[in-house]
Amino acid sequence: MQYVSTRGAAPVLGFEDVLLAGLARDGGLYVPQSWPQFSADEIRALRGLPYSEIAVRVMRPFLGGSIAEDEFRAIVEDAYAGFDHGAVTPLVQLDQRTWVLELFHGPTLAFKDVALQLLGRLFDHVLAKRGQRVTIVGATSGDTGSAAIEACRDRENIDIFILHPKGRTSEVQRRQMTSVLSSNVHNVALHGTFDDCQDIVKALFNDTGFRDRMGLSAVNSINWARIMAQIVYYFTAAVALGAPDRKIAFTVPTGNFGNVYAAYGARAMGLPIEKLVVGSNSNDILARFFASGTMSAAPVVPTLSPSMDIQISSNFERLLFDLLGRDGSAVTDALNRFRTEGKFAVTDAQLADALAIFSGHRVDEDATMATVAATWEESGYLLDPHTAVGVAAAKADPLDPSIPMVVLATAHPAKFPDAVEKATGRRPPLPPRLSDLYEREERLSELPNDVAAVQDFVVARARAAQEAA
Ligand SMILES: Cc1ncc(COP(=O)(O)O)c(C=O)c1O
Ligand SMILES: N[C@@H](CCOP(=O)(O)O)C(=O)O
């Protein structure tokens, strides 16, 4: 299995190099040269298997033989052993046609753990084999940060720097990051939005001198391995609900487009996915794209679902690559236009290709709160505000109701207790292992929205951490 860049001008790489590279050297994102195919019989054979076995079978083709199967199986089993539900990502039925796929049973209570618990172990495995060390830089709107820190803390060959937008995460999310005091963990509260954090991370990667000197790696979904690990739960959910002998649809609360792109990958691999519904909060650039074919930037507004307060969805580039016929220079042109003019458009035919798979819905703050409240009243089920955006988007979609709709529950309601309490009168408690979170010491540094300032900080802290080690 080989991987190519969406901008078409970076070296073609195998799995291990893609894992360590993060962003491609031409600024693009790596995607598989072709999608592995699963026959109906191979999909049927997944029914009833444990999560980790499905994970091995679904991810195996992406490794291209770079990790021996028994070693990979051991890594996968270890990654999911700490989840607090035996099914890892259980399905819960909400009503006759709607299920939620609970992705929040990992250590930091959000879907990011599913991929990052694996990624931390894969980094360890590959770095030990190569005798290499990396500096991870990541951007977070709240959940990737804590999941990545949890996965990488105290690992010998990794320093990890996480940029979050100051004051724009929930308090639980911030404390989950900043209360990890390990010497290889460095939290930055940036004076800016998540998009600013993500821009700085990309700028650090695009400075190839800095990138090579520091040995930069990524934990955001720009890293192909994140997408690979997220494809697995679309298979587990689909086979549990009757695939390949029954069609299925998913609604994904969306920000950076990584999660729903993983669903697109599962469909390309052979899962009978009828529709992918993209749920956006008031930061609705994606819903507007699916309505018009034009991607046009707008200022980020803070919402009750802060992890989705994103206007530049980095993984959309991977879909665009396919919509534009896998032409890297056409992708580069479109994205340059987006940077300089604030917008670009696809043709009617390209939009029709996208709409054959996707639809998009904007869910505003009132609808989010009303959905949390109504779901609690009708089903006795507590939704976090991100999942509520998904449930509301699923209800707004005109899809054939005989097709089961799975909404991805991307975070535990206890990560957003204020919004949940306001909507339902019930304050969801943190699990016992996090019950002292509000008393824990925090450590973080504040930095301006400036690439050079972040670069200097990374150099100084990485040097100090290595001297102390
Ligand atoms: C709780 C939660 N829901 C939804 C999303 C959006 O997912 P994606 O960025 O993969 O579209 C995020 C952030 O990524 C998140 O943390
Ligand atoms: N919502 C995310 C934003 C980063 O997304 P990623 O999937 O690219 O890591 C977060 O919680 O940080």
UniProtKB/TrEMBL annotation:
It is an enzyme of class 4 (lyase). Residues 85-331 form the Tryptophan synthase beta chain-like PALP domain. Keywords: Amino-acid biosynthesis, Lyase, Pyridoxal phosphate, Threonine biosynthesis. The modification N6-(pyridoxal phosphate)lysine is found at K112. Its cofactor is pyridoxal 5'-phosphate. It comes from the Bacteria. Residues 2-80 form the Threonine synthase N-terminal domain. It catalyses: O-phospho-L-homoserine + H2O = L-threonine + phosphate. CDD domains: Thr-synth_2. Coiled coil: none annotated. Pathway: Amino-acid biosynthesis; L-threonine biosynthesis; L-threonine from L-aspartate: step 5/5. Its EC number is 4.2.3.1. InterPro entries: Ser/Thr_deHydtase_PyrdxlP-BS, Thr_synth_N, Thr_synth_N_sf, Thr_synthase-like, Threonine_Synthase, TrpB-like_PALP, TrpB-like_PALP_sf. GO terms for molecular function: pyridoxal phosphate binding; threonine synthase activity. GO terms for biological process: threonine biosynthetic process. This is Threonine synthase. It comes from Azospirillum doebereinerae.
